[in-house]
Amino acid sequence: MSDSIGLASVTPPRTMFAERAFQPPSGWTALIVLLAGMLLPIPLVAVLGRAFGSLSSASNPAIAPLALLAAVLVSAVCFVCLFGLVAIAPNEALVFSLFGDYKGTARRSGFWWVNPFYTKKPISLRIRNFETGSSRIPEVKDAAGKVVEQQGRTHGRPSKVNDRNGNPVEISAVVVWRVVDTAEASFEVQDYEDFVAVQSEAALRSLATRYPYDSEDHETSLRGSTDEICRQLRADIQERLERAGVEVIEARISHLAYAQEIAAAMLQRQQAAAVVAARAKIVDGAVGMVQMALAHLERDGVVQLDDERKAAMVSNLLVVLCSDRHAQPVVNTGTIYS
Q: Which uninterrupted H or E stretch holds 258?
């Protein structure tokens, strides 16, 4: 007991990252200032050279070299600062850090200037979607370093999982998401795109095991309660991605079917259930029509039938109404009792 308490006491607290807004100055103003800083020392050195050349060189011979050195330093500093010019596209953000210290995130699109020693990590804020079961395709470069094939994802493959009743089913979903907190997406997880894919796949598998594929008693099922299942899937994925700074906009099942090894048997079962349900509906309708016919005959006094004749009439009507083939009528030319 004491060992567990000691271990818990030395566990470092979990670091919490929250996005901080960062607004850099205009890049156009900085560009003009830096170009002027690089070009102005040249005529300045010429002016200083003529001014000090007219004076006695013995009075202060070190002024000219110092002026030249200062001009070179100013030009070098301005040249280094040019590397701080950045452009931010619409629906894109730049995460800035300085020697491992998070400084903030710039979301406003435009041309800006930041500290050239800042580490800049671009993060797309666009809405993205992917299908579960897909894998990432890395970009391909040739020998010269030119990108031949862009980074992408393969087509999704349905995942095979057992539903609540133990039946193997194939299921896949389409997830629509976007980054809402760039700090969490950058520092809380290793690769937020891969994290979204893996956690979405895990949430889909967990959801499929909690519900049956189909239900006959109006219970929530994967096939019969599509909207409810999709809402639950979105909530499950969002719960898993909360620490990654990602918002799940929509999650919908794109493929749902029994696995191939039981698909034929389940199809026969569904067909049999459909036939039984159809026959039950036909019988209910036929019984109602027979009752209505007998009631009309008795009410209008068309004919008086005893119980035996009523039973025969009911039998004939049910055969005609419930048969799956056209009935061949037999015309009775005698009396009703012969």
A: strand 246-258
- Judge whether 258 and 270 are in contact, CB under 8 Å: no
Burial track 64-96 (b if 16+ CB lie within 10 A, e otherwise): beebeeebeeebeebeebeebbbebeeeebbbb
Structural domains of the chain in order of their starting residue, each with its CATH number:
14-124 (no CATH), 128-258 (3.30.479.30), 267-322 (no CATH)
* Residue 188 Ramachandran class (φ > 0 left, ψ -120 to 50 alpha, else beta): alpha
Cα 104 to Cα 87: distance, rounded to the nearest angstrom: 16
| Selected residue with higher pLDDT from 236 and 56 | 236
Give CA–CA dist 187/191, Å, rounded: 9
Coil, strand or helix at 51 = helix
Q: Give me the half-sphere count of Cα atoms (radius 13 Å) on the Cβ side of residue 112.
A: 19
Gap between the Cα atoms of 57 and 144, Å rounded: 55
Distance of CA 91 to the CA centre of its chain: 17
pLDDT, averaged across the chain: 79
Residue 225: other Cβ atoms inside 10 A: 16
Residue-wise pLDDT tens digits, 280-336 = 777 777 778 777 877 777 777 666 666 677 777 777 776 766 666 666 666 555 555
**Taking a C-beta distance cutoff of 8 angstroms, is the pair 170, 158 a contact?**
yes
Q: Please answer whether residues 174 and 248 qualify as being in contact, where contact means their C-beta atoms are separated by less than 8 angstroms.
A: no
| Token pair recorded at residue 130 | 């992917």
In 132-287, at which residue ranges do the beta strands (DSSP E only) sit? Answer: 136-137, 140-141, 147-149, 152-153, 159-162, 168-179, 246-258
Which amino acid, residue 110?
Answer: G
Residue 248 · residue 176 · CB < 8 Å: yes
Looking at residues 71-81, what average pLDDT do you find?
Answer: 84
Could you tell me which residue, 93 or 59, shows the higher pLDDT? Answer: 93
Q: Could you give the CA distance from residue 122 to residue 117 in angstroms, rounded to a whole number?
A: 16
Query: What are the b/e assignments for 259-273, b being 16+ CB within 10 Å?
Result: eeeeeeebeeeeeee
